[in-house]
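Field: COMPLEX_INPUT
Field: COMPONENT_COUNT = two
Field: RESIDUE_TOTAL = 225
Field: MODE = joint
Values follow.
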Amino acid sequence: SQKIEQNSEALNIQEGKTATLTCNYTNYSPAYLQWYRQDPGRGPVFLLLIRENEKEKRKERLKVTFDTTLKQSLFHITASQPADSATYLCALPPAGRALTFGSGTRLQVQP
Amino acid sequence: EPEVTQTPSHQVTQMGQEVILRCVPISNHLYFYWYRQILGQKVEFLVSFYNNEISEKSEIFDDQFSVERPDGSNFTLKIRSTKLEDSAMYFCASSDWGQEYGYTFGSGTRLTVV
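Field: COMPLEX_OUTPUT
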C-alpha cells in the first residue's frame, strides 16, 4: 500500500540553525510533492511544490529537494527562527488524485 | 489575500444528530475539498468536488456524508446521524487549477459529538 513517512519525533533546534525535515514515500510515483505548515488548531498552509523533474526548489529561507530514486524529499529552513515552530506536512497526489498528507514533523526552534 | 472561510468554528452536537459544515471557497477556484483531522492524527482526505459533482471520495466518505454546492459560493459537508468517532477538525480547501498549485485551507470547524 502507499505510504508517506515523516519523522514523528519532534525536531528541536537552536535559533539560527538549519532545520532539515524528511519525507519518505513508498509505492508512489508522484509527479510532484508539496510541503505545508500547520499551526495548532489551524488549517495547513501551502509552502512549496516541487515537480519530479526538479531536484531543488527555493523560496526565501526554505529549500526543498526531491529524489525520485530514493523516494525522498528533504525540507530545509535556514536561519531558523522561533516563529518557524510548527508542524510541517508533506503531501503527495496518488496517481493524480487528491493530496494525501503525511503525519507531519513538529519543529521547535529554541531562542 | 483571498481566504477560505469556514463556519461555524466550533460545533457541539449530540450523537445521532445531523450537522452541516459550511465553507466559502476562494471565488475563482474550481476544485473544492473536505479533509478531516482527528486530534493528534494526520489530515485525512474525505472528498473532492469539481464542476458541481464529486470527483473523488475516500473510504471514510460513506453514505453518512454528503456534499453540496447550493449556490455559486457556498460548499457544504453534511454528516447524517453523527457518531462519537466523527469528532474531529474538518477542513475545507480549494485550488484553482487543481492540486498542482497547492490547496488553500480554511481554519476548520471543530466538531465535537457528545
